[in-house]
Amino acid sequence: MLLQADNITFSYSTRTVLHDVSFSIRKGEIVSLLGPNGCGKTTLLKLLLGLHHPKEGGAVRFEGKKLSSINRKTLARSIAYVPQFHRASFAYRVIDVVLMGRMPHKPFFARFSRDDLRMAREALEKLSILHLEDRPYTEISGGERQLALIARAMTQGAHTFIFDEPANGLDYGNQIRLLEELVNLSSEGYTFIKSTHFPDHALWVADRVLMMKEGNIIANGSSDETITRENLYSLYGREVDIHSLKENFRVCVPSRLGAASNTH
Ligand SMILES: Nc1ncnc2c1ncn2[C@@H]1O[C@H](COP(=O)(O)OP(=O)(O)OP(=O)(O)O)[C@@H](O)[C@H]1O
């Protein structure tokens, strides 16, 4: 098993926000974490990155080893956090942002080598944005910035990527582009764990869905098994119809809005 959470309980001061959470993730899976605001998704992702630690009795293991026993630099070469695209304040070139992924591999103040540059350019090429390498990071679009951050994570050498709501702020085309890239990379053995507020995204690309409510996992399975009317009602308190459009392709439509539009 690649990543395993065993009986994780976590509290901020006296407030427990994760309750005895357990699941495991295999190499090459795309896992979507769904749940309402405040249910504990970001907290769980921070535990998977080793930024928070579970209460005694619980553990997160990467390739069988407890995260707490792996040093930070080694962990950074295995699991990368891909932030939401952000407004950078300094106009680094795209290639420089991607090269920063090599930092965990270098002694302090060492210069980047030819190999570092080759890896950074290969990652940009794989994501079809090599043409942007010399552009200032502050002047490319949000979708391009998100792809550059994925390239940086790849350059880090990591094969497991953790995203917190990666589609936030991306236009529809870039959301689809991002999902397509995740599917391509997962077929090469990259693993993705992402929180999302869009059940449709999980239906389109997730191999597996973890549903969280009030700090508990209430469903864990394939998107077909978990994205059901009942589970969505339980998570969001809204009636949602799930339609099959073509083989293996389903979409969510809010029942009331769908009914309202039929009357016009
Ligand atoms: N640093 C903190 N100190 C205290 N409480 C926190 C802290 N961070 C988060 N919380 C609380 O923990 C709970 C879970 O928060 P978390 O950010 O993990 O939820 P989330 O599912 O990611 O939410 P969202 O979908 O709104 O981003 C919330 O009630 C939140 O208010």
UniProtKB/TrEMBL annotation:
<dbReference type="InterPro" id="IPR003439">
    <property type="entry name" value="ABC_transporter-like_ATP-bd"/>
</dbReference>
<dbReference type="InterPro" id="IPR003593">
    <property type="entry name" value="AAA+_ATPase"/>
</dbReference>
<keyword id="KW-0547">Nucleotide-binding</keyword>
<dbReference type="InterPro" id="IPR050153">
    <property type="entry name" value="Metal_Ion_Import_ABC"/>
</dbReference>
<dbReference type="Pfam" id="PF00005">
    <property type="entry name" value="ABC_tran"/>
</dbReference>
<protein>
    <submittedName>
        <fullName>ABC transporter related protein</fullName>
    </submittedName>
</protein>
<keyword id="KW-0067">ATP-binding</keyword>
<feature type="domain" description="ABC transporter">
    <location>
        <begin position="3"/>
        <end position="239"/>
    </location>
</feature>
<keyword id="KW-0813">Transport</keyword>
<dbReference type="GO" id="GO:0016887">
    <property type="term" value="F:ATP hydrolysis activity"/>
</dbReference>
<dbReference type="InterPro" id="IPR027417">
    <property type="entry name" value="P-loop_NTPase"/>
</dbReference>
<dbReference type="InterPro" id="IPR017871">
    <property type="entry name" value="ABC_transporter-like_CS"/>
</dbReference>
<dbReference type="GO" id="GO:0005524">
    <property type="term" value="F:ATP binding"/>
</dbReference>
